[in-house]
Amino acid sequence: MLYVPLGSAARFHWEFKFGDLTDWKNFDEISWGKTYNKYLRTKYITLVKQSGNLQMNPILDDSVKSRANWIGNITQQQGCRIVFILKNVSKSDQTTYGCTSSIWGEEIRDGPIHLVVTGECA
Fold it and tell me: CA-to-CA distance for 30 and 98, rounded, in angstroms?
């Protein structure tokens, strides 16, 4: 569980190491968002290795798009060290979140992490 005061930023830390060069070559993307039974139900952010681009889910409400972001790096040597950030959390953000990476079509899941938004603004 991740406890975050109302109005603060929720930070979801994720780390993954590539086993070898083959894993790195076959790595496609990482997605983060709301989960249901460990599966991503609503993607918020997808980071694509090939293009190096961040893709925001186009069907997300603008208020979520403006608050969702990430920091970190994705390299063969260091692996993936990423923090997905959801700013200015409200009670409606209180749900489960997770991350899924795709390597050669196989999905590796991390989560779920349940976000609990506590009463007072930070």
Answer: 11
